[in-house]
C-alpha cells in the first residue's frame, strides 16, 4: 500500500501525463492544495510559525480559490451551481450583519469567513480528472489514518511525550494540558473527535472505492483494523456507535468479514481497547451538554434571533450563567443559530447536508450505499462543534462531500453502477 501511495503522491506533485480522463492524468490542483493544507500543514503546524491568523488554512483556502476560479471560468455560473452560490452570497450577507450587530472586529470576520464560508464552494466542485484525484484522496486518507493510529499507540507507551511536545512547539498550552491529562487519542491534526471523524470518512470512502471502482475489498481488513483501534482510542461514543452500525450494514452479507470483525472486536475487548469507551457510555451520552443547556435555557434569556445572530464566539459571553455554559452550544445547529441566526442555520444546513444528499440520490443507482456512508458522517459531524471552530474541520467535511459527489457522478458517467 505504501508504494502505491508514494507513487500516487509523486504523480500528483509532478502532474505527469496528458490525459484528463484516466487514472494516469493530472491530479486536480485544487484538491492537492486542500490535502496539503489539511494533512501536511494542519493548524498546529501553522501555529508554530504564525503568531496571528494561524487558524486560517492558507493552503486549503488557495485550493478553494482554484475551485472558485474554475467554477466561474467564462464569467457565468452553470445552472446547477446557481442555487449553491446564491446560498453562499446570502450566508456572507448574514454573517456580515451578525458581526456588525455584535460589534466584532474585521479580524474576527476574516477568521470566520476563511474557516466557514471559504470551504463551501469545494463541496460542489466537479473534478476535471476524478479517477486520478479520487484515488489519491482515498490513499491519502488511508495513509494519514494509519500514521495517526500508529503514532498514537507509540505515544501511549511513551506517556504522551510526543504529542505534548508537539503541542508545546505549537505554543498551545491548552492542548498540551488536555493531551497530558487524557488517554484519548490526540494527534498532529488535533482533537480526538476530529480524529474520529477522519477515521469514519476513511472507512466509508475506502468501502465505496473498493466496491465500485477497484471491484475488490483487498484493503478492507487493514482499514477496519485501523478504524476499530482509532475510534476506540478517541473514545468517541457517537463515532463508535456509528462505526458499529456501518460495519453491520455494509458487511452483514459477508461471512468472512463478519467473522473477522467479531474476532477484532473480541480481541480488542479482552485487551482493554474499549475500556475507556465503555466508561464514557456509563455517563451522560451528551457529555453534559444537554444538562448544561437544560439549566441555562431555563434562565429566560433569548439566545436566538431569526435574521442575524450575536456574532462569532458569542458562546463565551454566557460564562456568567455558569462556567461551562459554552458547552450547551457545541452542537452545530445551536452554535450557528446563536452566533449567526436561525435563517443562517437553515441555509447552511441545506447547503451542507440536504443538497448533497439530493444530488447523491439523483446521480446513480447505488445511491443507497452512498447515502448510508454520507449520512453516517453527517450524523457524527453534528455531534460536536468541529465545523463551528472556523478552521480545518469545515475543509475536511467539504472535501469528503466533494469526493462522495464526484464518485457518484463518475459512476453515472461510466455506467459502473449498472
Automatic annotation (TrEMBL):
Q: Which organism is it from?
A: Enterocloster bolteae (strain ATCC BAA-613 / DSM 15670 / CCUG 46953 / JCM 12243 / WAL 16351)
The record lists the membrane-crossing segments as 30-46, 52-70, 82-102, 108-125, 137-158, 193-210, 222-251, 257-278, 335-355, 367-387, 394-411
Keywords noted in UniProt: Membrane, Transmembrane, Transmembrane helix
Q: Does the keyword Transmembrane apply?
A: yes
Question: What is the name listed in the Swiss-Prot or TrEMBL entry for this protein?
Answer: O-antigen ligase domain-containing protein
Transmembrane as UniProt keyword? yes
